[in-house]
Description:
Blueprint: E1 5-10, E2 25-26, E3 29-30, H1 31-39, E4 47-53, H2 59-67, E5 72-75, H3 80-91, E6 95-100, H4 108-111, H5 114-121, E7 125-126, E8 134-138
Parallel strand pairs: 1-4, 1-6, 4-5
Antiparallel strand pairs: 2-3, 6-8, 7-8
Amino acid sequence: MSNTVIAVVQARLGSVRLPEKVMLEIEGEPLIGLLLARLSESTQLSAIVVALPDSAENDPLANYVASLGYPIVRGDEYDVLARYAKALDETQADVIVRITGDCPLVDPATATAGPARSRARRASSSTANGFRGSGERKVRK
């Protein structure tokens, strides 16, 4: 049985409370870039895919993520689940680790511990304790 684990990072520029927050910089680096760099440290992931809305407003974010070399899927801004499904279709993953794009301090070990925990318990999903905005889902084909 294959066990392809990917991270899907959902992000957008259209936040109501803090617009363009994923592009705010810490020491000259956009938050989304910091998050992707930290997540890339994981040895448990086959790929990291960024799921973005397909609106023109998010083109600068898509261009930045593409310049870093990460694959992107785009879809309806109000249908996050469809963007996850698209990432799944394009990667043929068995497990998706869900990450929100506004969490630059993500710990790669904690964020990707769910798949092993789920296998050990024979569960179909898990979340990282106390780690808001992440989770893992096993995909049943």
